[in-house]
Design a protein that fits this description.
This protein is α/β, with parallel strands linked by helices. The protein has 3 domains: 41 residues, no CATH class; 201 residues, Rossmann fold (3-Layer(aba) Sandwich), CATH 3.40.50.410; 106 residues, Tumour Suppressor Smad4 (Sandwich). 30% of the residues lie in helices and 30% in strands. The chain has 8 helices and 18 strands. The protein has a 7-stranded mixed beta sheet with strand order 3-2-1-4-5-7-6, sandwiched between helices. Strands 9-8-18-17-14-15 form a 6-stranded antiparallel beta sheet. A hairpin with a 3-residue loop joins strand 2 and strand 3. Helix 1 packs across helix 8, helix 2 runs antiparallel to helix 3 and helix 2 crosses helix 7. The longest helix is centred in the C-terminal third of the chain and has 24 residues. It is globular. The relative contact order is 0.12.
């Protein structure tokens, strides 16, 4: 047991020493599904490029794919294994093929807020890519977002880069500058937010724009740095150290499994859900320490709204170290305050989704499970 403990400690120390850049990053791909994308084959061209990116994902890549119009809808998450994950890729590609562009508006803040929740959950560096022909076309209940608002939702301090691929007039309007086609447009104040202007949404131009994003993300030294504060450079991690960490991690897995199985705590709560039909029902929920559950019409915890259409997942709950966290995937308020970021929740709190569905958290008890 002592030897296993030493191995575990060594693994943790090495992994903590390695900078995040030594591991594969995360990519979030969002495509606009508003009705205007049907013009001139824009939507089919965008879908073809998404399918190419899914098909070309390499072992170690983590890829999220989603669509947005009035709301945001996460389609799926892909982690590519050493074999290339062909079955998982085909499943995600099938979902992309089935998409249609029928939305009325383009609420840009929706996918940005969802992306931030994913970023905080992943705790890694990465890039967000949005394909849209109407970045400045929000619904009447949403304010148009400018660069300052975009940078507020997705701050540079998180170490992610955001790429907005849109029509020339939208990119020029956002950046208040001339935007040469297919070239990166950057504002000095918010260098992590970058635009790529396209005169037309053709397959070739979208593909070139996505290739530009990948090249820039690989070479940009500014990713994860805050210009106002000079930060120390991370010590580059040689691949032997990475491989050593992985090997030691594998050796320590049995010890971790034994430890977790001996004392795995669960938190029991009750969601009292009231929908638009005025009826309320109680959902007993058991959240295991270190595990996450999705909440929504198609989530792990099925929450219906009555007669209002909601996205498949509204938010995630994650209980860790005695604290239950809410990660918003939609327009959420907690006790009357808008939840843009990860927020701690507990017994007695009131969660509202778009002021339509209310969820009151009630006590349900805790227990310990011993294998």
């Amino acid at each position: 047991m002592k030897r296993k403990t030493i191995v575990l400690v060594m693994t943790v120390l090495i992994i903590l020493w390695l900078p995040l850049s030594a591991f594969a990053g995360v990519t979030l791909l969002w495509v606009d599904t508003s009705g205007s994308m049907n013009k001139e084959g824009r939507f089919e061209s965008a879908k073809d490029v998404l399918i190419r990116e899914i098909d070309n994902a390499k072992p170690g890549d983590v890829l999220y794919v989603g669509n947005f119009d009035s709301n945001d809808y996460l389609i799926g998450r892909l982690t590519v294994d050493e074999a290339g994950s062909p079955a998982e890729k085909e499943s995600l590609i099938a979902k992309v093929r089935s998409l249609s562009a029928k939305g009325h508006w383009t609420n840009l803040d929706q996918p940005l807020k969802a992306s931030k929740a994913i970023m905080l959950d992943e705790r890694a560096t990465g890039k967000i890519v949005l394909l849209s022909d109407g970045l400045s076309d929000p619904s009447p209940d949403h304010q148009p977002v400018d660069l300052a608002k975009i940078a507020e939702i997705v701050p540079q301090s998180l170490g992610w880069s955001l790429y907005l691929i849109g029509l020339s007039q939208d990119i020029e309007g956002l950046f208040q500058a001339k935007a040469p086609e297919k070239e990166l447009t950057v504002n000095e104040q918010y260098p992590h937010v970058k635009g790529i202007a396209l005169n037309d949404f053709t397959h070739e131009k979208i593909e070139d724009a996505v290739d530009t994003v990948k090249k820039d993300a690989e070479t940009a030294a500014s990713i994860g740095q805050v210009p106002q504060q000079e930060e120390p450079k991370a010590i580059p991690a040689p691949w032997p150290a990475v491989l050593t960490a992985l090997l030691l991690g594998l050796l320590s897995v049995p010890l971790l499994l034994v430890h977790r199985s001996r004392s795995r705590q669960k938190l029991g709560i009750v969601f009292e859900v009231r929908g638009t039909d005025g009826e309320s029902r109680e959902l007993p929920v058991m959240v295991e320490d270190g595990r996450k559950k999705t909440v929504g019409p198609k989530g792990d915890i099925s929450v219906e709204s009555g007669n209002v259409e909601l996205p498949p997942v509204l938010f995630c709950v994650h209980w860790k170290n005695g604290i239950m966290w809410l990660l918003p995937q939609d327009s959420i308020t907690v006790n009357g305050k808008l939840a843009n970021d990860k927020v701690a929740i507990g017994i007695g709190d009131l969660i509202k989704v778009r002021d339509k569905v209310s969820i009151h958290i009630k006590e349900g008890g805790t227990d310990n499970v011993t294998d």
